[in-house]
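Hello Y.,

Per our agreement to keep a running log of every chain we model this quarter, I'm adding this entry. I've kept the format consistent with earlier entries: sequence first, then predicted structure.
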Amino acid sequence: MLEQRIQQHFIDSADLKYQAAQALSKPIASAVQAILACVTSGGKVLACGNGGSAADAQHFSAEFVGRFERERPELGAIALTTDSSILTAIANDYDYNAVFAKQVRALGQAGDVLLALSTSGNSANVLAAIAAAHEREMTVVALTGRGGGKIGQALRETDVHICVPHERTARIQEVHILALHCICDGVDTQLLGEQETPT
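Predicted structure for the entry above:
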């Protein structure tokens, strides 16, 4: 019984990835181009999200600053989810919904990219960060699910929306991490040229 349930998780995850591959390849490619334009102009990516999405923001930033699968010069990325003093000060002195927006206003510049993650598409603090990024003339790359929610409505034509066509948080997060890996690989390929995919 338990093993069958586990196998079903694998099957459901794989099915969603197959279904989403065609629908998401274009927005992921657009995200690669937006982030590539940013970092080749000396800009940086600011990444944010809550819970598992916070972990994904940190995961992305680590692979961007360190490396993904190939050696290359460091690329600028900051996870806005990691400084506990900043997060707790803003949450305490202002409001938890401001924890990312105030960092975006402090660190973001025109030409930078905000990588905004929210499986529901309705995270208030991520929405506030998007508004702050627009004030700073930054491009937003949003990863959502469940139809995109309020974030989908807040995006501009110049932004990129990668919306996973599913309702279940775990499945959405599994596709988000794949999309982030695709972005890292796409940026590396554009910068360094084609290379055989590691096995």
